Every structure is written in structure tokens, then in C-alpha cells.
Amino acid sequence: MRWLAFVLCMLVTPLAAVQPDEVLDDAALELRARALSEGLRCPICRNESIDESNADISRDLRILLRERLVAGDTDDQAVQYLVDRYGDYILLSPRVEGVNLALWLAAPIMLLLAGGIAAVTIRGRSQAVGPEELSAEEKARIDKIMRS
Q: Transmembrane region positions (predicted)?
């Protein structure tokens, strides 16, 4: 039973890869560093923050981020420093500006286009002309064939 509880705890809470030698002495700065590193992507790992990643580059980025905070950078300055070096890719939630704006708007635009195409297609099918009524001659021929 304890094993099951342990496994569930491991699945529910992600483990941080922050090593004890990385932790800052100032608790307030450490909290800021943790909050910022949760929003920064590991350049090697897919959709994993530098706080969760065990990659060497993530460790270097965590240390660099903490150095910037200790040097007196604000949260925005520290993050911008990393963005300047690694590009917007390092942000787990990219900014809605510039080229990224096209990416943010592409999905809703495609959804609207698909909905419009579906509506036109459905409307066109509902207005389609049904089969014409059979003439008396055609009905007589069918009756003759059916009796044979």
C-alpha cells in the first residue's frame, strides 16, 4: 500500500531537478528563481522546463538565472537576458507579438475557415434537388418487370 502511495505521489507532483548546490541562500530570491525557471523551456528537452530537466544545459541556465537575480536584475530583465541569448523558443508560453502573433492566430483562423467550409457544404447538400417523379409510362414498365 505504501508503494502505491509513493508511486501516486511521484506521478502527481513533478520532481524538480534543482540540485542542492544551486539553491540560493536568500529564500525570496530562490522563490523568484523557481517561479521564473518553471516558465523557461529546456533547449534540449521537449516541453520540459529548466526546473524539471536534468540536462546539463538546464543546470547551466538555472545557475545563470540565479546569477542574474543575485546581480540585481528584475524578473523581466533576467528572462529577457535568456531570451536574447536563446530566442523566444526558451519561453514555455511564447509572447503574443511579432511573428508569434501569426502562430497564435493561425489556429482560430483555420477553425473558422473549416467551420465556414462545413456550413457551405452542408447547406449545399440540403438544397440539392431530389429525384424526379416517375412518369406513368415508367411506372407501367416497372410494374411489368416486377410481375415477370
A: 101-122
* Calculated CA dihedral for residues 10, 16, 20, 24, nearest 10 degrees: -140
- Taking the C-alpha atoms of residue 107 and residue 112, their distance in angstroms, rounded to an integer, is 9
Instruction: For residues 144 and 65, give the distance between their C-alpha atoms in angstroms, rounded to a whole number.
Output: 91
pLDDT bracket for residue 134 (50, 70, 90): confident
Q: Kindly report the pTM of this predicted structure.
A: 0.58
The pLDDT tens digits of the residues spanning 61-112 come to 999 999 999 999 999 999 999 999 988 888 888 777 777 788 788 889 999 9
DSSP 13-69: SPPP---GGG--SSHHHHHHHHHHHTTBB-SSSSS-BTTT--SHHHHHHHHHHHHHH
How far apart CA 90 and CA 51 sit, in angstroms, is 13
At 78, list the grid cell. 533576467
Query: How far apart are alpha carbons 138 and 134 in whole angstroms?
Result: 6
